[in-house]
Design a protein that fits this description.
alpha/beta; five-stranded mixed β-sheet; two-stranded antiparallel sheet
């Protein structure tokens, strides 16, 4: 085994060490390195800011959906647009915020949002966009902690990415999670990229049912 193969095996072993998160469990306690808008006339008026998980999830009921990559076909044509177009409807169903997460850096995520036609929030200190907020998990730390890391090095040349899923997170605890694929877990170097249960319509159906059963309070 050469050094490259050994390194890939070690990485796959490390990412598979986390089991898929389940309802009732807390999301990973990590720090996201984000870009925050500052007062500046520069064409890129942002600076680095460390944001803990609690900034996104504490004392809120949020919808999080995660996808393999910015600018990729299904993510751009269907997954993100579905949530963006239904943003107000989702919030009206007892949700405080909607987040889209990907293992990409903050620069890529912003440019993807702009390319998708999302309206940028130019308020100082904003999270980037006025509706769906994009979270860059550049080092895959959150993704690994969720048990959703997958290697797509041989199949697509992506390297480490997030498996596709969606979840309702209530005060930092998973209330409901939808994981793509028959196994209910990431598939390493998967040929297919299933997209059947993490879509906005499925999420809306769940949120509507949660209201009927009294599970919609943060």
């Amino acid at each position: 085994m050469n050094l490259t193969s050994l390194a890939l095996c070690m990485m796959a072993s490390a990412t598979s060490a986390f089991s898929v998160i389940k309802a009732g469990q807390k999301v990973p306690d990590i720090t996201f390195n984000t870009r925050v808008r500052i007062e500046s006339d520069d064409e890129n008026p942002f600076d680095w800011l460390a944001r803990p998980t609690s900034d996104y999830f504490a004392k809120k009921r949020v919808v999080l959906f995660s996808l393999p990559g910015a600018f990729t076909p299904t993510c751009s044509s269907t997954h993100l647009p579905g949530y963006e177009n239904n943003y107000e409807k989702i919030k009206a169903l007892g949700v405080d915020e909607v987040y889209c997460l990907s293992v990409n850096d903050a620069f890529v995520m912003r440019q993807w949002g702009l390319a998708q036609g999302l309206t940028e929030d130019k308020t100082i200190g904003s999270l980037g966009f006025t509706q769906v907020k994009l979270i860059a998990d550049g080092a895959a730390e959150f993704t690994r902690g969720m048990g959703m890391s997958t290697q797509w090095d041989k199949e697509r040349g992506f390297g480490e990415r997030s498996w596709r899923y969606s979840a309702v997170i209530n005060n930092g605890e998973v209330e409901k999670i939808f994981v793509e694929g028959e196994t209910g877990a990431p598939v390493q170097n998967s040929g297919p990229d299933p997209f059947e249960v993490s879509d906005a319509d499925t999420m809306i159906e769940y949120l509507e049912s949660a209201i009927k059963t009294g599970r919609s309070q943060p």
